[in-house]
Structures are given as structure tokens and as C-alpha cells.
Give the backbone structure.
Amino acid sequence: MHELSIVTSMISIVRENMVRHGAGRLNKIKIRVGEMSAVEPEALRFCFEACAGGTDMEGVILDIEEVPVMGQCLNCKKEFQLTLYLDSRCPVCGGEAGGYVSGSELDIVSMEVE
């Protein structure tokens, strides 16, 4: 379960930033997890709660935004959601997607502190 190592790294990054900015108590961490990131949001949440229990992170809200896979049409440049392993044709003009615009993210977006 690589989510455990992701959570321990995330907690370390959050703590470093709190010290750097002189932050008080942490209330919430917002993260973005892309559909193609190979990270299971519920496993991530479970690992976070397990790691946070009995520490200063206990009770912190982990807000996970799941990001769908989006592509961009090579012809009309319209962005559209891709269904993995299925047709990747543009719903506007029928052109092919030229690559992924989003869906591989694994980012700490923000921290809410007192």
C-alpha cells in the first residue's frame, strides 16, 4: 500500500510548511488526486487517519478532490473528460485527444490553520 508512504511524506511537507510560516493549529489539508495517479482516495484517507491518531494531526480534516482524466482535442482544442480505455474522440468535432490535460495530479493544494 503506497498510500502510507504518500501520507507520511504529505504530513512531513505540511509540518515543514507550518514551521516555515509560523502557523498554529492545523484544521484542514486539501489535496488533489488524479484518476490516473494510481492512488486510491479512500486508502489515502484511511492511512491519514491511522497516522494522525494520537498526534497533533488527530482531528485534521483531509479534503480530497478527485480529478478526472481530461484530454484536449487536436483539432478544435476543446477540453473534454476521457473515459479510460474507451473512445477518446472529441464530443464537439470528433477529433482525437492529443494528450492528457489533467488526471495525474497528486498535490497538496492548501492548508487551513489557526
